[in-house]
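Researcher: Here's a chain I'd like modeled. Treat it as a single chain, no partners, no ligands.
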Amino acid sequence: MNPLHRDTKGAGMSDLPNIEVQGESEPAVALALLRIIMASSKDGTEHDRDWILSTYADCLAVVGGAEVSYDEEDEGKEGG
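Model: Modeled as a single isolated chain. Structure tokens:
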């Protein structure tokens, strides 16, 4: 079993998808995180290319140790 793969049953997170990480590199872990985020999105939600790439970049940054802000208010303030 991959050391990064954890069984979440019984941990109160049974709603999370069972995602198995293929490899131990940061990009592999970021891809698994992206898959978890996409699977937890509302049913019927379609994501465009820009959303997927931006979210993957955020996942990669977080896996690398960066802090990423997700405040919706910040999105409107970025322009100036």
